[in-house]
Amino acid sequence: MDMDFKTLEKEIERLNRINLRANYTSRDRYRSLYNSIYENVLEMYQNGLIAIESGSKGLSYLRELLINDGHEYSYTVVFWEKNNPERKYRIGVCIRGLPVCKPVEE
Length: 106
Fold this sequence. Notes:
Blueprint: H1 5-17, H2 24-46, E1 50-52, H3 59-68, E2 75-81, E3 84-93, E4 100-103
Antiparallel strand pairs: 1-2, 2-3, 3-4
């Protein structure tokens, strides 16, 4: 995979441009891209390239929720590039919807 942070940001932007109201195909594309982003964020975290907000249970917990509880449960992890904490992102499981990966709005 080996993704850099700028590419990750572009993937997150692409994810958030998908029109979920268009059709079920767009929802499938969204889920597929989210899973790819999640895997890359997990790998970047394991390689020490990103930092996770203290107090978070961790990225692997998100996958457990998606697999075991589905989208009814809400949990979010905030992360950022290790040397650049100005731009933060949240990745998580939404209540009654699709998983989320979006910039943190100040």
